[in-house]
Amino acid sequence: MDRIDTTAIMDELKRIVEYIMTPSTPVFVVGFLIVLFVPLLIHFLITHTTPYTTLSSIILAGPSGSGKTSLLTLLERGDASAPTHTSQAAHAIELTVSTDGGAPTFREAARDDAPGKHRKFLLVDTPGHGKLRGAALGRLSRGEESKAKRGQGLKGVVFVVDAAALAEDARDAAAYLYDVLLALQRRAGAGKSARRPDAVPVLIAANKNDLFTALPAALVKSALEAELGRIRQSRSKGLLDSGVGIDDIGSEEQDGWVGEYGSEKFSFAQMREFDIDVQVLGGSVLGGKVDKWWDWIAELI
Ligand SMILES: Nc1nc2c(ncn2[C@@H]2O[C@H](COP(=O)(O)OP(=O)(O)OP(=O)(O)O)[C@@H](O)[C@H]2O)c(=O)[nH]1
Ligand SMILES: [Mg+2]
Known about the structure:
The chain is α/β, with parallel strands linked by helices. It has helices spanning 2-21, 25-49, 68-77, 106-109, 134-141, 144-150, 163-166, 171-190, 217-241, 251-255, 291-300; strands spanning 55-61, 91-98, 118-125, 152-162, 202-207, 278-282. A 6-stranded mixed β-sheet has the order 2-3-1-4-5-6, with helices on both faces.
């Protein structure tokens, strides 16, 4: 019974193969249609999943009260006098930059009838509270795969700090910045073998320089560098104290180290090794002096 079945099936198969192999009009037509439409189908599938209009995104991060939401409001509405509340969730807005220098300031660029060519991008405000920082950090480490999914490419990180508060205590700001740099460093390392995700530069926006207690940008830079060095040292201290030499420390330990491994002092220049450019620029949201930051963003879009 079984044997008859298999021979019948074999016969049928043979018939089909013979039919396909014998030149005939229907076979030619079907073959021609396949050759014509399969590439078209693949083309549409690919263009559908990666739209040409991918919006670039810039993430605002930084400790609570540094002025991220104020900055977003200023760029969106042209004034930042409205009171802000501590943010609890990430919030994105769409902004426009001019790509040919037609609108040199953000105020002009924000107008729809501004001269010159335009480009849209997303500005993402994130909460700075210690317990909600995952919202920003998650976006930094999720790289390529989410980019295809959400149709957005991360172009840069604006890390807003309160330059007046930094004079007294840089620890909290530096701890957050350490996590941001570590996430970006891992992101750069993750793509080493295959396609590297685009390098993501960091702008440290030293805000509130309208206050007389605010540190100038150069001092903000050195204060943060010193504090980051201290954090790096103390985070690896557990192992160093246990008598393991710096050369014996495994890759797991190296994984949590930001910047040049084993170096004593931290400097932002060490991030270049990972293609991460870090700049510190002063400004003031309340004073309306954010053009330097705006130019930094516009360059990336
Ligand atoms: N003097 C001065 N105050 C500012 C400046 N920018 C923002 N502020 C004030 O700083 C306070 C906090 O600003 P927010 O924008 O809410 O801070 P945030 O970074 O969004 O804080 P979280 O949402 O908690 O992470 C507000 O009272 C602002 O008015 C500035 O340039 N100068
Ligand atoms: Mg906020």
